Amino acid sequence: MNATAATQTDIVIVGAGPSGIFTALGLLEARRVAGNASPGGEGIVLVDAGLPVEQRNCPKEHTGQCVGCDPCRITTGFSGAGAFSDGKLSLSAEVGGDLPELIGFDAAQAAIEEVDGIYLSFGADTHVEGAGVDEEVKEIRRRAIRAGLKLVDCPIRHLGTECAQRLYRRIESYLRESGVDLRFRTVCRDIVEKGGSCVGVKLENASGDVEEVFARRVVLATGRRGADWLERLCEQHGIMHEPGVVDIGVRVELRNEIMERVNNVLYESKLIGYPNPFRDKVRTFCQNPGGFVSQENYAEGLAVVNGHSYKDRKSENTNLAILCSHRFTEPFDQPIAYARKIGELANMLGSGHLLVQRFGDIQDGKRTWAHELDRSNVRPTLPDAVAGDITNALPYRTMTSIINFMLAVDEAIPGFAAGETLLYAPELKFYSNRVKLGDGFETSMPGLHCLGDSSGWTRGLMMASVMGHLMGKWLAEG
Q1: 3-class secondary-structure state, position 467
Q2: Which parts of the chain register pLDDT below 70?
């Protein structure tokens, strides 16, 4: 590690995911509207551990298997996981976490409309899924109610994986051309504290050069991948936070024909249930019609499952997550570590790969074998997933809730819980550390702000973008 240098700037944003990006965009727009003498990006430093979006090419596309990029090119870099997700913008404040509790439902909905306009200005598709189909939605809701489920019908603007990458590349170019100091392959090692306030950050680049960047305000927007790092930072500096909910589950893959009606009407069905016997919240998330199951890598080689869909390239299958929420009380207060252990166990059973199992085999109490997948109607879109037994990794409480939830969904969507439906594990969502925030999303440490999924207040692309958008406007006024 080289000697420490020091520089001064106005705003430092750690994390170039949607909340970090929209903080910078919000600052630029507010400066432009205010007619500042220097309305560009001067004094804004945006850092990320990953690469620019144009360099974020996953080698697995060519090698057929994960090569263990560090950091993972799917989860890290400009736009975060957004560049490699299917890019769904949920246009309702009912979806995307608990930000409305913090700022009010009406304010959140108004901000969604503003952010949606910004996405459109950078080339998002003007078509909205799930709009103008009220009668069809009513019929799906009736089926869900009979099954004891709640349907949240949320209009969706679908970017698509390849279109999302092009859109974020335009945003990246705009920020760079506006004078924002974009620093990639740069890690935030710590914050700089003075007199109980945050006055800057300690950064380290790929060459090992260390720099203390002092700033008027520091914004942490590290996303789900940075949730455990942020939790440690809060403990170290006494920043007020509390353990929140951790989501543990599976990714389901089944034929498009089974999901055809829901896909055509809603594109993404958001179903919520509280199945017996534990009555934990279980929900569907991130539905990808004609999509592909994918792998993400987190710190220390943890492999988790995800899914995405393209605008033009389609598979014969639909995939979606089923997530079971767990909230821990005293004395245990490490939900992220708990979820990681489950993920590590699943990875161990898959010899470093993701596990896949047929639902019928789970019900029969047997593992799935590779030759059984080969003769199934549902062909896995993640070819290097290892056929096995996910029930050896997921806790009894989680697995029981998922099974009973799937049987309920089957009543609303016949064929959903067919014997050949595939379940991949582990699907984990690391946003459980909820940071206490005040005005301007300021933490209990003056000068330090926290945004997005790592803050515990948002879940997903749109709400993280909204939080950044509001942060940028607040910083411009401060």
Answers
A1: helix
A2: 1-3, 36-40, 82-86, 431-432
Q: What share of the chain is helix, strand, coil (3-state, %, to 5)?
A: 35, 25, 35
The answer to whether 377 and 255 are in contact (CB under 8 A) is yes
- How far is the C-alpha of 44 from the C-alpha of 10, rounded, in Å? 6
CA dist 28 and 41 (Å) reads 6
Q: Name which of 185, 214, 158 is nearest 55 in CA terms.
A: 185
Q: Are 399 and 427 within 8 A, CB to CB?
A: no
pLDDT, one tens digit per residue, over 114-124 is: 999 999 999 99
pLDDT for the residue numbered 332: 85
Cis ω for the linkage preceding 331 (within 30 of 0): yes
> In degrees to the nearest 10, what's the CA dihedral of 139, 142, 148, 149?
40
Mapping DSSP to helix (H, G, I), strand (E, B) and coil, where does residue 17 land? Answer: coil
CA distance linking residue 104 with residue 93, whole number of Å: 10
Which letter, b or e, does each residue of 391-412 get, where b requires 16 or more Cβ atoms within 10 Å of its Cβ? bebbeeebbbbbbbbbebbbeb
Q: Assess contact for 53 and 69: CB atoms under 8 A.
A: no
Q: Which residues make Cβ contacts (< 8 Å) with residue 392, sequence separation at least 6?
A: 345, 349
Write out the H or E segment, with its range, that includes residue 422: strand 422-429
Helical H segments across 123-255, by residue range:
134-146, 161-177, 227-237
Asked if 434 contacts 457 with a C-beta cutoff of 8 angstroms, the reply is yes
End-to-end CA distance of the chain: 36
At 119, list the tokens.
């996405």
Does the reported pTM lie above 0.85? yes
Taking the C-alpha atoms of residue 218 and residue 236, their distance in angstroms, rounded to an integer, is 17
Tokens read off for 436:
């206490």
DSSP 365: T
> Phi-psi bin for 322: left (phi > 0), alpha (psi -120 to 50), beta?
beta
Which residues 6+ apart lie within 8 Å of 5 measured at CB?
209, 210, 211, 212
**Backbone region of residue 277 per phi and psi (left: phi > 0; alpha: psi in -120 to 50; beta: other values):** alpha
* CA dihedral over 305, 277, 151, 119, signed as positive or negative: negative
The DSSP call for residue 318 is E
